[in-house]
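stage 2 :: seqdesign
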């Protein structure tokens, strides 16, 4: 059973940074699947922000390019989302999941950007 667990959300002020973590199991999962970070803001559809493939190739959505960076540590079975220069409109619940076919969605982590 594939499991993905997000952590690292919180309340930050505009312009600050935050790093989200996604722990995945079973081991070697990242060497097989593409994993992406998504978010869903209140009243909006879930959107894909960035993805990293089994061979480590990255794709970032235009909306966050230059501010958000996806990375991974295969030894720790983890995928990260470094978010810099956060804006109030980045407030959302953030999720990680596989692509192209997602697993069951977890609870995600709340990121709130507010002054």
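stage 2 :: out
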């Amino acid at each position: 059973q594939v499991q993905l667990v997000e952590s690292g959300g919180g309340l930050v002020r505009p312009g600050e940074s935050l790093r989200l973590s996604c722990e995945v199991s079973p081991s070697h999962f990242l060497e097989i699947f593409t994993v992406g970070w998504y978010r869903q803001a209140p009243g909006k559809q879930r959107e894909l922000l960035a993805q990293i493939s089994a061979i480590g190739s990255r794709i970032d959505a235009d909306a966050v390019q230059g501010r958000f960076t996806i990375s991974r540590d295969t030894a720790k079975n983890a995928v990260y989302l470094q978010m810099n220069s956060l804006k109030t409109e980045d407030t959302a619940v953030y999720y990680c999941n596989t692509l192209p076919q997602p697993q069951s969605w977890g609870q995600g982590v709340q990121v709130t950007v507010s002054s």
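stage 3 :: structure notes
- Strands lie at 3-7, 10-12, 18-25, 34-40, 47-52, 58-60, 68-73, 78-83, 92-99, 109-113.
- The radius of gyration is 13 Å.
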